UniProtKB/TrEMBL annotation:
One of its GO terms (biological process) is amino acid transport. It is a multi-pass membrane protein. It comes from Zwartia hollandica. This is Amino acid ABC transporter permease. Keywords: Amino-acid transport, Cell membrane, Membrane, Transmembrane, Transmembrane helix, Transport. Residues 92-383 form the ABC transmembrane type-1 domain.
Length: 395
């Protein structure tokens, strides 16, 4: 008999049986989804029924109504005649502002303290250790109250304000600083962005040059030079006006310049000082994760300790530092919600005022949750991208 005439062997049909692990896993997943869906449906139905019984309106139509309340700090123009949507936007911008500045300052301070914890100088090492242990073990809310009391109650009035730097005044009204005004401010910011783009391009070229020739490019000098030269040069070529406005004492308060209110300053100080203690430990553990042989090998090449740290140790330590650092950045963003305790108008404070006036509690809570979820996921996505970019590529 020819093998070509032999009919193909059909595999046995798979029967549905409870003894089959694949069948059981599918059934369990269907049951789990059904239970979760049923619980969600019950909660939503019960909530809608209770709201209907109490004649409480639902929906987000209130966002287009007039807010009718003032906000102490407004990064964008706002009046009580504006809508609730505008007021909530102001609160969101206030939250983003304090979170962004806090992340930058906490990273810088935490990195310095983390490196100081590994210093060979006994005094520097002990001072940094005490700083970390003390700041990490005092609740953030208490630190916010402490800094707010220091600024608003223990600082002198405007007439006797401290004058630590030219044009800078510290009083119980906050911190007054000089600011730039005029059409040239846009060109100045454009110059900063241009300098940052040039720094990224130059950094990439410097790494390729070092890999090709082994010569270290003086990147720090060029970074400082680009940041110092590009913004004023672009403003000068634009021909626009730019003026420095210095705060002046008139009557019982300062006029002109930029003011950091006691609420903003206390929140920023508390977030930075509290979180920098955790970041310092992250940096310290990341540096210690690099083998001692790396230090010794770099030192054998004649590199100074600062160059060893910057060129050899920190690039390897970043792969350990970035994941826990992401958690600290998220903590800064989420901990900023404690601003309501000291009166800073963040998104939580403004939505609390909104729901007290409108009664739209569920919608207000949903907007707070959506705002923090969006910001946190954005930070996570960026940090995960950076973590993959610096990760070692296996061959």
């Amino acid at each position: 008999m020819n093998h070509k005439d032999t009919p193909p062997v059909q595999p046995p049909r798979r029967r549905l049986s409870w003894n089959d692990p694949g069948v059981r896993s599918v059934i369990y997943q269907i049951l789990a989804v059904g239970i979760v869906g049923g619980v969600v449906w019950y909660l939503v139905h019960n909530t809608m029924h209770n709201l209907s019984v109490r004649n409480i309106t639902t929906g987000f139509g209130f966002l287009s109504r007039e807010a009718g309340f003032a906000i102490g700090e407004t990064p964008i123009s706002y009046t009580p005649a504006d809508t609730y949507a505008r007021a909530i936007s102001v609160g969101l911008l206030n939250t983003l502002r304090v979170a962004l500045i806090g992340i930058i300052l906490a990273t810088l301070l935490g990195t310095v303290i983390g490196i100081a914890r590994l210093s060979k100088n006994w005094l520097i090492r002990k001072i940094s250790s005490v700083y970390v242990e003390v700041m990490r073990n005092i609740p953030l809310l208490l630190q916010l109250f402490f800094w707010y009391a220091i600024i608003s109650e223990m600082m002198p009035g405007p007439r006797k304000a401290h004058h630590p730097l030219p044009g800078v005044f510290v009083s119980n009204r906050g911190i007054q600083m000089p600011t730039l005004n005029g059409d040239g401010l846009t060109w100045l910011l454009a110059g900063v962005l241009l300098a940052i783009a040039a720094i990224f391009g130059l950094s990439r070229w410097a790494r390729q040059r070092q890999a090709r020739t082994g010569q270290i490019f003086p990147m720090l000098r060029w970074v400082i030079g680009l940041l110092v030269v590009c913004p004023p040069a672009l403003w000068w070529f634009s021909g626009t006006t730019l003026s420095l406005e210095v705060p002046e004492l008139k009557g019982f308060n300062f006029v002109g310049g930029m003011t950091l209110t006691p609420e903003f300053a206390a929140l920023l100080f508390g977030l930075v000082i509290y979180t920098s203690g955790f970041i310092a430990e992250v940096v310290r553990s990341g540096i210690q994760s690099v083998g001692r042989g790396q230090w010794e090998a770099a030192g054998a090449l004649g590199l100074k300790s600062t160059l060893v740290l910057r060129l050899v140790v920190l690039p390897q330590a970043l792969r350990v530092i970035i994941p826990p650092m992401t958690s600290q950045y998220l903590n800064i963003t989420k901990n900023s919600s404690l601003a309501v305790a000291i009166g800073y108008p963040d998104i939580v404070s403004i939505i609390n005022t909104t729901l007290n006036q409108t009664g739209q509690a569920i919608e207000g809570i949903l907007m707070i949750m959506a705002a923090y979820l969006t910001v946190s996921l954005s930070i996570s996505v960026f940090m995960n991208w950076y973590n993959k970019r610096i990760a070692l590529v296996e061959r």
